[in-house]
Amino acid sequence: MELTRRDVIAALTAAGISVGAGAMSIELTDFGGSSGKSASNTVSPVTNQGSTATEGLSEAVIDLLDAVAAVIYPSTVENRREFVARYTQARTANRPAYREGMVDAAVELDAVARDWYDTPYAAVSSSTADTLLDNLGVDTADPIDDGTISEQIRFYLIDDLLYALYTTPTGGSLVGIENPIGHPGGIKSYQRPGINTDSNQQSNE
Amino acid sequence: MNSPAATSAISNSDSDDNAQDRTPSEQADVCIVGAGPAGALIAYRLANQDLDVVILEAGPEFSDADRLTQQEQHIRPGMSDPWKMGGQRDAYTTAGRGYPLNAARVKGVGGSTLHWQGMVMRLHERDFEMKSRYDVGVDWPIDYTDLRPYYAAAESALGVAGAMDNPYAPPRETSHPLPAFPPSHSDSLFAPACETLGIDMHSVPNARNSERYDGRAACQGYGTCKPVCPSGAKYTAESHIQKARSAGAHIIDQAPVQRLVHGDTGEAVKKAVYMTPDGTEYHQSAQRFVLACGGVENARLLLLSQSDQHPDGLANTSGAVGRFFTDHLFAGVGGQLDEPTRQNHVGFNTSECHQFYDDTSPVEGIKLEFLNYAGPSPVNKALTADTWGDELLEQLQASYGNHIAVGGLVEQLPHASNRITLNHSETDTHGNPVPHVEWSIDERTSRAIRRANNIQRRILETLGASIEWTVGPDSTGPAYHQMGTTRMGTNPNQSVVNADCRTHELSNLWVVGSSVFPTGGAMNPTLTIAALSLRAADAIFDTL
């Protein structure tokens, strides 16, 4: 199932971001591409950016977030990297505290990967990336923004990306609902007997 | 109890607590305590007639701009309560069955309409005459015909979407201001089973815009009506607070009233004593005072205002202040069908049934609701799962799609032993004793819940559903409709306020909201709160 420009907008809407104005505007016209990894084991370490950073999330952070998404998103999802990059950049713009929390969690996860596997998290295999999260206990950790490393990873990385996916029409449709909660999909879908693929991507119908 | 603290990462754009002018008005015709639907409607009606109105609200004024952030706070685990209830400000204790008070109310401009679902039915005629008809509870001092024009006015004020398709509803002269929301696919699945059983389905009146109304948007289907509607389609009392403000009313938020102070004779209130976030105590004088701060705080404030002349609390010679605390009980049966049921697209219901409401065995009212949100939402399920990737998707696909349920509300008759008192062993932020909520249900209420369950089970069995859960007498909970604690009546020895919601004992003090309901029926109370408030506003105006 292909994540589209509309899905990015839907995910941002659910996260309270108005797309298209000022610093929150995002380039969506060239949306498309593969879901494969772009990172290699030579990628730069994920580093703290500081709360005053205005340039957005670094490429290294985006690489890591995409690697996390590769683990937690269904394998049938396409255009994953573009979705993750554009969503997280816009989601954290003008939210320095949240961006700092997300980066801090990414730094911690990357550091663990380098400690355990001598490889950046974004460059380990998918199975290793999955196992690493499991071994950290992230699968059963409570999402706590100022909690343990595992709890912060759950809050800022896992839950944020799952929230983004499953509040979109595409993410919902994977499960059978084109208008999941958090998405303003109008008041027609609840009346229909099944998913209407023609209006599947329509927002505010 | 929840912590009111916002997370450091996701926070709302709170205004500076100390930046606003929270000093009292020099001259006020009317001082209203509480900015929920009762207070807001009265404030607007009186301010619109050129009266000087001041509203003192204990909670904050939330910004419209934060509703999507609050929606995320609601959906995602680990985030704060979007309405910031809890902590020492809202401390309480409870006994008996126990009552989850801070899940059941919101302090803020808009009151509990900020988090309500928005179902707005009129009480039936029999609800006003339970003693005369069935020798239970008490009669109201007014009947349906007294309230009927105010119900219509309330429906216009709130913007009710409804249809005249309910053969069991009390008589009405006009249609609803907005067309009803169309039935859901899920409703269409119920229809043949209900027809087989001779059970009538009809539309739900919703205080939710089915089309644009009164400057507010039409429903956009976010699906999180309760507790947050980001589109503004769901009515909240913020609407009438804004209208009141435009008409000249002075709204002071984060100004919890500590007590009312009466004059030397004890026959009239002189001032409301309130605190502001910087710790300053202010006194607001007025000619008239209106308590509109909910079924628990109305009673608590009267009790906190005890004096030498009123040693048991203001307006409490009857001893009824705080007593007869009632709520509606949820009853439900749910399961799964072998076909898609299309749940959780919207957060409101479109079909219900009043057919059993006026039955006499038992006399407790039963209202059935055909749910549009049975079973878990995939979003919530994903965020609480302990797996991810393809395995998570398989779990979500298995858990979503076929759930179906019939819910409903059951009436609880008033009992003096269910009550609000002051717990002097615990104090709130300002050192006042916290409310103590004693609440239980009796055997006859349990019997009515079982009857509701039997009807619900028959419907699902006829539908061919596999029944997986029942919310019956043991697992039931309150519907968060706090009623009865300052009951209305004609006898000052048995009630707190008269038919106009004016206290029997203090000539310039009114109490409004569901706390004045002598009995509560089984209908969601807010439309009746609104109608009574509009009626009380007329009565207040007539005295000025």
From TrEMBL, chain A:
Ranges of Polar residues composition bias in the record: 194-205
Region described as Disordered: spans on this chain: 183-205
InterPro entries: TAT_signal_bac_arc
Name of the protein: LacC domain protein
Organism: Haloquadratum walsbyi (strain DSM 16790 / HBSQ001)
From TrEMBL, chain B:
Sequence ranges assigned to domain 4Fe-4S ferredoxin-type in this UniProt record: 209-239
Assigned keywords, A-Z: FAD, Flavoprotein, Oxidoreductase
Lineage: superkingdom: Archaea
Record field: compositional bias (Low complexity): 1-13
Cofactor(s) this protein requires: FAD
Stretches the record annotates as Disordered: 1-26
Single annotated GO MF: oxidoreductase activity, acting on CH-OH group of donors
TM ranges: none
SUPFAM superfamilies named in the record: FAD-linked reductases, C-terminal domain, FAD/NAD(P)-binding domain
Family as reported in the entry's similarity comment: Belongs to the GMC oxidoreductase family.
Annotated protein name in UniProt: GMC family oxidoreductase
